[in-house]
Amino acid sequence: MTKIFFISILSLLPFFSLAQEIDFLILNNDYDKALQIIDNELTKNEIQPTLYLKKGIIQQKRFDFVGAVKSLERAHELDSLNPNILSEIAEANSSLGNYRSALPYLKVLYNADTTNTVKALKLVRVFLNLRIYKEPYEILKSFYQRDTTNLIINKQLALCAARTGHDDLSISLYQKVINQNPSDLANYTNLVSVYQNKDQDIKVIETLDKGLEVFPDESVLLNRLGEFQYHMKEYAKAIIPYEKYLAKGDSSPDVLKNLGICYYFEKREKEGLYLLKKSFLINSDYPIVSLYIGLCYKALNQYDKSIEYMNFAAKTAIPYYLSDIYYNLGIVYGIHREFKKSIDAFKKAYELDSTKCSVLFEIATTYEEFQKDKTLALKYYNAYLKAKKDDNAYYRKLTEYAIARKKKFKEELSLKGKKPVKRP
User: Fold this and answer.
1) For the chain, first and last CA: distance in Å?
2) pLDDT tens-place string over residues 291-339
3) In sequence order, what are the residues at sequence separation of 6 or more whose Cβ sits closer than 8 angstroms to the Cβ of residue 89?
4) Cα separation of 40 and 44, whole Å?
5) CB 173 within 8 Å of CB 206
């Protein structure tokens, strides 16, 4: 028995010696010679899964991932239970972006040892690359219960929690990982997204400001802060991060557009016009840019150019703000004393959005200004007064004016012995 054992050991010595030589060559980055030895051995005997495994490892080091997958698949055919082969074939597929191909191998590895953090995180990484969040959420949660200090587990669990509706957990985890590693930009932007989902505007600003303390010139954070304040209609505040963003040399048409609009609302029409025209040159199919160029020209009393750009905006606009374009076009035509065109534009605005009852008021005042017969003006004042309106100072002021004008017209008609025509 002892004799047979020693004979067996002696028969394996050449293989051990060969394996050591290949490992030594790999260690010293002599990949060509290692591959030559492996290929020579495989011509003698193709049924050697370990050699295919080593070949696949070398091919990955040489960034030949297609070749590596082919070698490792052959190794897997010969030895489907070898965890090293399973791990390497998953890595090679992941390097190619073939995450769905990598997934089954990593599942086998994880299911064989569900307490192994490395195997779990490799599986989670592939799930996240496939934008699958429910399964990795459960895996990471179990590891988090065992260790609440692991940075990678906390970060990935925060992302999965955000994607699966566990916003409060996501927030607490992102706050933790930001404190653990404040130099990871993605944590700030991801936390901002969670706060926005929960409409926690103050927290959004706090997080972006905190990120800018670490990354004072980071374009992503400057853009997010400017965009957020812009959509909150805090135009004066949005100007600051947008200006810093543009000062870095970035010239996104959206930033040019938004900052130009901010300048318009802050009565800096010339600066706004400059940026909006730059945005227009990059993308002339953006109707809102044409609209605000027209509004800047209107504020600068250049009505011909204002009308030109607003008409262009109307032709290219999509329905949800086309009504606003016609409304503003009606105002500019009125200032330009082209009353017929003004009323046509107002009627088009109302046709597109009948909830804008202020359009009825504008039609009434326009008819009043250019027609001696106040019948049509009265008609539209009545329509405005009957329309459903928000209870705010703006509409209350318009209502008081409409009531006063209606009373005046009735008095004038009464003095002339006429009765007002009742119209809907």
Assistant:
1) 113
2) 899 999 999 999 999 999 988 887 776 666 678 888 888 888 888 888 8
3) 56, 69, 72, 73, 75, 76, 102, 105
4) 7
5) no
Burial 345-381 (b: 16+ CB within 10 A, else e): bbebbbebbeebbbbbbbbbbbbbeeeeebebbbbbb
CA distance linking residue 101 with residue 88, whole number of Å: 12
Cβ pair 360, 351 in contact under 8 A: no
Can you give the pTM of this predicted structure?
0.70
Residue 27 CB coordination number (10 Å) = 9
pLDDT in tens, 140-167: 999 999 999 999 999 999 999 999 999 9
Estimate the share of the chain in helix, then strand, then coil, as percent rounded to the nearest 5.
80, 0, 20
The count of residues in the chain is 424
Using CA atoms, how far apart are residues 36 and 418, in angstroms rounded to an integer? Answer: 110
In angstroms, the CA 342 to CA 269 distance is 23
- Which class for 271: exposed (0-12), middle (13-18), buried (19 or more C-beta within 10 A)? middle
